[in-house]
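Handout, section B. The chain below has 345 residues.
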Amino acid sequence: MKALINRLEKQTKKQDLLKYFDDYLLDKLFGFCYARTNDSYEAEELCSDIIYALVKAAHSDGEIESVYPFKDVFEKANAIYTEQLPKICETISNYIEEHKAEYLAFPYLNKKVDMNLILWQQVFHIADAFSYCVECALKKNHFADVKKTDRPFSVFGYVDNGKYYGGGWDGVDAQNVCGFSNVHLDNIYITRIKKHFSCGLNVSKDPQIQLALRAIDGLDITLLSEKEKEHAAKAIECGYLYRDGDMLYTKILENALSDRNRLFDISNALQNGYFDADAEIVAAKVAELIKKSVPDYLLGEWRLANNLASMPILDAVVECLIEKGVLTPPEDGIGAEGCWMSVEK
């Protein structure tokens, strides 16, 4: 990132940007798009649109000159959010306790459901609720008269300061696997959670995930081949399965594909009135900082500036909930936490 900023600040040739698009960056781009759309097909379409626009722009005349470094106020912006962290976490903890029965009542297909696994599944939406409310307050009370910038896409980032922010969310689709006509898999990865798979996963070639599909209603281990038993042992180790006597059961959360669209309804309700007062406090301070630090021609990108300001919230909320005993992280970062499936017969 530092090298990229330095090159941009020296009026980078547009074509030079294409050199940075390797497999790693493309994977990150897909993860970003998937987190925004929560649909692998739409994420692919968005990625294609972004890459097409970039290639088209890169082959036009001129150089990139209007790169504005927000880095000088980055930590100040972060501090505005983190100042409210105790209140944010208290509100979230109380909300989770009040709605525990609703979370557990969701029609998961597992033999037994663990509240900790549910909360890890929900944590992106839970942590995002506050920054969403801040954005709403910014739009309504502070930037109502600022026209949104009209361009195909914008590029923004932060200078590496030795800290890790956020994470990723990868999803894949599969058809006609283990008796299911359609399967959708998701996994998140943040500081406390390592990823199980990336977006290019081929489920038909992953025996451990196939065992997780076969074990939804229970799978007799004595009927497995020796090779399948080896795969089962690895699936237990990474959190896909658990063993109960001679039976294997799916440990990662599983739900019907028809219920996928309402998976996060309970957590998304945190956006409705729970943070209004504190969100306005943050919005007022962030707006003042943006208007003071960002030039007029970039004010239409205030949403991106707010995204940068809110970057520490996800990990900070997770750590706070772990400290309160609301969340329990997996050992060594890998387990059933943050991984789930939606299936259709």
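Note. The CA atoms of residues 127 and 317 lie 6 Å apart. Compare this with the example in section A.
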